[in-house]
Structure formats: structure tokens, C-alpha cells
């Protein structure tokens, strides 16, 4: 059954995650109607548009200016996110943007201000906030079920590096662990990260370390409410895509996440086994659809987006502080302004 008045989307970015979101909007979400896709790489735009039966363009601004489009999904390269958010806002279009929303705090502020000035919804793609187990854990913490949060943990382990040479520097912080930083901030709602330290190395592809690739990292974060959090990432989980979270408090503990794709388990003489997900789009299929559905609700009914630009900025603060910590080799303050080392983000 289709929504009586679906939100008309234009999507920018025909890569892996853009293709997944576009397919959801076109075929799996009654509240949405995908009008067109755009990508400067014409072959990618054509391939996606033709496969979904929608118009395809090579000029993102032309898609933004299309009067049929009322909401823009930004799923292209991260370095272009902030400019496209601003362009969409100035055209009066609601914006869903994949993480990270921006690569510097100044650009994050610019994107937030543009959407506020245009009075349009801005939602950022942190999918864990829409995964049922993470939602349940968050509700448990929010209702006081574990008392006062004291120790928090979040981890992301990716199945592997298909092409280490194509991974930009600092990806482990700005693209991967930024999900964990948002999850920790969400679980520890009301608190602010104030300082952190990092241990990171190239243990999976050591030959690429000189090019700036870090593939293994552990980040320890101190919050202003006294809680201590650990975020961990690796690009070599041979057993599958693994995302988990944990909050330990004065009255108990709650956990969320599993690499298991299904709840079934095979018990045999060789042991117990469960099928695992090999990609985020497999493990978080329902969450990806739920975040887009929630955004449609914000557009159509005027409800506040569940993941705001300010939330994305808070996670970015931590990611950028991680870069400073690696550069300086010490514990650093999580700042509210850009710093010189951030120039390395766009290398």
C-alpha cells in the first residue's frame, strides 16, 4: 500500500550506500517516491537511474532545482556533503544526509545554519539509532534501567579491506568510528565528551601506513558527567560485520548488537554456528529503511528529525579530536572549534 502523499525525493550519489538508499526509496518505502538520481559520474548515474526506472542526471544542482523534488538525499562523497546540504536548504528542500554531515566543524555549523534559516528538516544517517536492539538499549538507559552510566562501549568491526590503497586517511575516525561516537553520545544523553586518547595502527594492511591508512583503533573518551567510554574499530573481522554497544551503570548493564544476521543457530558435533552479516546493508537493512521512514514523517508531518545536525556535529567533534590525538600522541581536549590538524581530513 502506498502512502497517500509520498515525499518526492531526489538522491545525489550513486555509489554503494546511495544505491541501497535509492532502492529503498523507489521500491520498499510507501511514504517515499524517488523522482531522480544524480551523480557527476554519468555511468554510475545512468546505471542506477535505469535500474530503478527514474530520471538520472550528472548535475546535482539540477536535481536540487527540480520543482518535483521536495527532499534531497545526499549520499555522495563526504567532502561534498556540507555544500550540498547548504544548496538544498537554500532551494527550500528538506535534507537527509549520510554521515559525516561535514568534514570540519565550520562546515557543520554552516550546514546547520542554512537548514535552520530555511526552516527545513535536516536528518543525518546514523542508522544505529533505528536498529531495534540499539533502540531498546537506549530506552533502558533513558528510563533509569541501569542507573547512572559509568562505563560505555561501542565497536565496529568491518569484514575487510578490499582495496587499502583507496581508503582516504582518517577514514577509521571520520567514516567508521563516527557511528560509535554518535551511539555513545546517544546512550550518554545530556553529557558532553571533554577529552580523549587514541591508540591506532595499521595492523591489517601495514604496507599502507605511510600513506595514512589506519585500520585498527581504540579510543577512550571522558565525558563531563564522569562516564568513561571506549570505542573500538577494526577492518579485519573475518567472521563478518560486527557492531555492538554496551552501557554499564550503577544499577546494571544493557547490551545491543551482534554480528549474527539471523537469530537461528546450528548446533552440531563441531560446535555452534550462526550466519553472520557481511555488510552494513545486510545487518542494518531494517534500520536503514526505518531512518528514511522517520525522515519522511518529519517532512510530511513537521515532527523534529530523530537525528539532528547538532548530533552529527557532536560526533564529528570527537572524530576530529581523534585525529589531533594521533598527530600529537597524547590525551587531547575535545574542542568546539576547528584546529590546524583538520586540514589532513581532506587529503
* Assembly state (oligomeric): single chain
Q: What string gives the helices and strands in order?
A: EHEHEHEHEHEHEHEEEEEEEHHHE
Q: What is the spatial order of strands in the main beta sheet? A: 12-11-7-10-9-8-15
**Proportion of residues in helical segments:** 25-40%
Instruction: Please tell me the overall pLDDT.
Output: 95
- How far do the termini sit from each other? 46 Å
How many alpha or pi helices?
A: 10
Query: What's the CATH class of the largest domain, please?
Result: Alpha Beta
- Name the beta content range: 15-25%
Q: What's the story with the biggest beta sheet?
A: 7 strands, mixed
Unreliable runs:
none
Instruction: Give Rg in angstroms.
Output: 20 Å
